[in-house]
Amino acid sequence: MSFFKKFTETVSKGVSTATEKAQQTVEITRLNAQISGKRKEIDKLFANIGASVYEAYLAHDLSRAESKVIPGCEEITAIRGEIAALDDRIKTIRNEKECVCGKRVPYDTRFCPSCGHPFPEPEPEAVEESPIQADPYVPVDPDSEPEIETFGGAGDLDSLETKAPPTPPVDQRQICGSCGTPLYADSHFCPTCGQSTR
């Protein structure tokens, strides 16, 4: 019975992980579409600003363009702020952060693998513990296992093997000489200890 329980838990974990990944992909695609639309708005504003400046140039009075250029620039600044917020949302979903050099790295990285920049240690989040509430009318025996109705012979379950979910492939062309962490091919610094790989 315990094997069946482990097997069921493994399958349900895999299904929930796949569902979560699919939801994340849909959300990231939606956010990228919004960013793309906002960049097109910025391109139109740049074109309008350029046209206004050129018309003022032809009139030999560039001050005439000011009334159209300043509001356009302010609108571009506001849209860029919206794009930055959407980009931050994507980084949060992907569990990434951005280095000062512009490279995106996993959130738990301590040193940028590209430039070696150290990241500050993240502060641990306070977790509120909530008491587990049980049904007062159902007695709970901690030593008993729940009974599971099976169909077919129980011997069939013994022949099944539990397989661990596959681990994602890691590019292991380099290994840090200081701490042994696997490095990506383009890593110039170890993301764990900050040691130079050159």
TrEMBL record:
Region (Disordered): 141-172
Designated name of the protein: Zinc ribbon domain-containing protein
UniProt organism field: Cohnella silvisoli
